[in-house]
Design goal:
Length: 532
């Protein structure tokens, strides 16, 4: 479990005092001296260097001495006594023989202030070049790990340092850019033209960055996997050999250095490695499923593009319209706020929302053509208004609702007709059904309903193409009856008689049956017997 960092309580107290500006200037003077490899300064040297860090106000000696003592009391400065020097007075001893130097806490406090100011002045960025640099460093480390030569250890160390630096830059810039992006999404610009231009530029920037982000992320993940095949512990051990850390008796610099490298490597894996996370101390799978942050970054970029485009659409719509509902309500609110009296506010309400009690505005004269359109309503002839309009909300008395008609008898009649038609249809199919192939002339006398069904079946069969045996097959529209028809080979003619006349035509061989009946494949011998 990650522990919260414990910041010493006095480390940044110098930024909250009344002379915080002087305290900061003094620390910056020590930092500027450290750049020149001067680690200890007297009060006179500090006074001289204040101008070089931007402090031009006069500072009395006792004021500067009090500041140095205060910083030393907070643990930011060390006081060093120069016993070899000479002095005549106590003030001269303090001015010349007392040297001050930054402590570790002082260097950290100065670095923290400088980093904070740099963060305020810098802008976040999504730099694809950093992703390419990370991939290149990983590929270089993989090549170096193949060579067991100890002379390669220093290059492994510098390559690992460059890799960590690129990762820190990526994390810091991405985090800063995401914060600025979210602020931009919440921003309501007053200058719509500038606002529109800025958001359009951000959309183009995001689209360009997200174009090949997945491919770059996959390339880094593949290079990371190849490096881990050699062992992360081997990588860090060889980098430690190339780091040339000081070997002081009783001091262990290697353990914290290796722990820091392992933590940074886990940070690299959390950004690019897909799948399960490894334990950097044992190089074994830890079993925890993780989603690469570079993929999360891609999702954030896509969502930001959509959100920005939606904002741009709303801005475009608002600029296209001369007014908007929000602007109208704000104007109406100002009118309510400046109404002289409550009665005026009620009149404004009635005029704005039309919620008054009058309901006759839609009524008109019986002959509207007699009244010119330019006549004011106050001068026009009055319109008769029903008394029910105010009390009931309608202009005339409504009668009772008519009785609902009983349709039970109608339904029974329709059901009886449907059953009769079904029975007639079944009888017709039964009359036409055959026990095998037979001639038309064998049907004999048919009633008119059965004759109509037969004509329909013959028409459907003749509309189909004959198969290799010369048969034609057709099915009724409801799929209940199938007919197999074959032309007579002897040219015989059939005459069918009905109650309303007779039919003369080719004496076809027909077989009428239900689809799937075994008689559908009757042998040719049956047809031969029918022909005989």
């Amino acid at each position: 479990m990650t522990e919260l960092p414990q910041v010493p309580p006095e480390m940044f107290r110098f930024t909250t005092t009344e002379r915080a500006d002087l305290h900061t200037a003094v620390l910056c003077a020590f930092g500027e001296a450290g750049e020149r490899f001067e680690t200890a300064l007297t009060s006179e040297e500090v006074h001289e260097r204040l101008r070089s860090v931007g402090w031009y106000a006069p500072v009395a000696d006792h004021e500067l001495s009090g500041t140095l003592k205060q910083l030393a009391g907070w643990g930011l400065l060390d006081v060093i006594f120069n016993h070899a020097g000479g002095f005549a007075t106590a003030e001269e001893y303090e001015r010349k023989n007392l040297h001050y130097a930054l402590t570790a806490h002082g260097e950290a406090a100065l670095a923290g202030v400088q980093h904070a100011m740099a963060m305020l002045d810098s802008a976040g960025a999504l730099q694809a070049a950093v992703l390419d640099a990370i991939a290149e460093r990983l590929e270089e480390l993989e090549v170096l790990l193949r060579d067991p030569d100890p002379g390669r250890d220093r290059r492994i160390f510098t390559g690992l340092q460059e890799l960590e630096g690129h990762l820190d830059a990526l994390r810091a810039n991405t985090r800063r850019f995401n914060s600025e992006l979210q602020r931009l999404l919440r921003l309501e610009g007053t200058d719509l033209a500038t606002f529109h231009e800025v958001k359009s530029a951000v959309v183009a920037y995001l689209q360009e960055f997200a174009t090949n982000l997945e491919q770059r992320g996959e390339a880094i993940a593949a290079a990371l996997e190849r490096v881990e095949e050699h062992g992360v512990g081997v990588l860090h051990a060889r980098a430690l050999d190339g780091a040339d850390l000081p070997r002081a008796p009783g001091a262990d610099h290697a353990t914290p250095w290796l722990a820091a490298r392992a933590a940074r490597w886990e940070g690299l894996r959390s950004w690019f490695a897909d799948g399960t996370r490894t334990d950097h101390r044992t190089d074994h799978w830890a079993g925890e499923r993780v989603v690469p942050r570079v993929r999360q970054l891609h999702n954030v970029a896509r969502r930001a593009i959509v959100a920005l485009l939606q904002v741009l659409d709303r801005i475009t719509d608002s600029r296209r319209r001369s007014s908007s509902a929000a602007a109208d309500f704000r104007t109406l609110a100002r009118w309510f706020a400046t109404a002289p009296a409550e009665h005026d506010a009620h009149r404004l309400w009635d005029a704005a929302f039309g919620l008054g009690s009058a309901r006759h505005a839609h009524l008109g004269h019986p002959d509207a053509e007699l009244i010119p359109s330019g006549v004011p309503w106050s001068e026009a002839e009055p319109v008769e208004v029903s008394a029910l309009l105010r009390s009931r909300g309608r202009t005339e008395r409504m009668g009772r609702t008519g009785r609902v008609r009983d349709v039970a008898e109608l339904r029974a009649g329709r059901r009886s007709r449907a059953e009769k038609e079904r029975a007639e249809l079944e009888a017709a199919w039964a009359a036409l059904a055959t026990t095998g192939a037979m001639r038309l002339s064998q049907l004999g006398v048919l009633d008119h309903e059965a004759f109509g069904r037969l004509l329909d079946l013959l028409g459907r069969a003749l509309a189909e193409r004959p198969d290799a045996t010369g048969r034609r097959r057709a099915v009724t529209s409801d799929g209940r009856v199938e007919i197999v028809l074959r032309a007579p080979g002897d040219g015989a003619v059939a005459v069918l008689r009905t109650s309303e006349g007779w039919f003369r035509g080719p004496d076809y061989l027909i077989d009428v049956h239900a689809p799937g009946d075994s008689r559908a494949g009757a042998p040719a011998a049956a047809e031969h017997r029918a022909g005989a």
